[in-house]
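Let us practice reading a record.
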Amino acid sequence: MISWLSGNGKVGIISLPSCVSCIFLASGENTVIVKIPNGDKPLTLISAYSSPAANLEEMMKKLEEALSELQDENVIIGPDMNAHCVRWGY
């Protein structure tokens, strides 16, 4: 098993032992990006975290930038955005 963590340790991606061809692309304070080769179109996994106190627009901008670089690939984004709900808060 291989795992990759973000700078703050709040975001991570864990791969199964059978995924020996995973390629680590980037890790930021609140993001981790890993690519899985898959024939003609690789699959890119993006894990992201945004704390309740953070600027949500800033995180969305970073995700949009990452997506613009991966235009021709399959992408899965797994964000923990801690969105505010008027009924129960964060």
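A brief commentary: DSSP finds one helix and six strands in the chain.
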